[in-house]
Amino acid sequence: MRLYKIFFTLAFLTPLLTLSLDGFIYTKKEAKSVDVSINDNWLPGAEWVDWTNGMSYKTIDYGKNVWMTKNFEIGGELMDLATATQQAPEGWRVPTVEEWKILLAQFGFGGDPNSLIPSAYYTFDFKSAGHVDPVLGLIEVGESGMFLALSEDGEGHSILIADRELNYKEGVLPKGAKLAVRYVRK
Fold first, then answer.
1. Which entry of 23, 37, 108, 116 is 20 to 30 Å from 8 by CA?
2. Coil, strand, or helix at residue 160?
């Protein structure tokens, strides 16, 4: 019986020992920088490329602003307000609460909660990345997306969007919270 247990243990552990450890230990994406001039001919609606890491972002022109349609990534991390402001690519910035409200109204947010979700909702990719609460850590992944916004006086706010719903909540940004970032430009 003892020989059987040893054989079973070896048969089970051997494949695990031969697996690549990259996915288990190294979670950060390798940065691949590209030529600084990659966006010289960029126009709103086209993909904008972060030349520092090669990540590309679809953009959409909504009203007076051009929005990135997916969360900005720096190593796949959510960001606090100071980091988001410092890391904003040249010409881009954190949107205001009012800009978020205008954008969300265009998608049908705040209207009839029983309305069908418009297809444009999915082109903007309101990714449910959750957020990092200073006390609880990473929460609400797959349940809601929480995005950074600025008040008129430059204070940090949040826009909470429940997954696949046409409602949102505005709130004051808790100190130390990390949220998803969508940059805008005029």
1. 23
2. strand
- For CA atoms 186, 104, 154, 50, the dihedral sign is negative
- pLDDT tens, 107-116? 888 777 778 8
Can you say how many angstroms the Cα of residue 13 is from the centroid of all Cα atoms in its chain?
37
Which residue bears the tokens 């265009």?
106
Structure tokens at 36: 């600084």
Residues 84-108 have a mean pLDDT of 93
Tokens 């209207």 map to which residue?
A: 111
Query: Which amino acid, residue 51?
Result: W
Per the CB < 8 A criterion, the answer to whether 14 and 6 are in contact is no
pTM summary value = 0.78
The CA distances from residue 163 to 43, 61, 137, 143, in Å, are 30, 23, 19, 5
Which tokens hold the place of 142?
A: 């797959």
Position 80, amino acid: D
The alpha helices in 32-184, defined as continuous H runs, are 81-87, 97-106, 119-124
- What residue ranges do the domains of the chain occupy? 29-185
Q: Are 183 and 74 in contact (CB under 8 A)?
A: no
Half-sphere exposure of 161 (CA within 13 A, CB side): 27
Reading the block at residue 90, the tokens are 């040249």
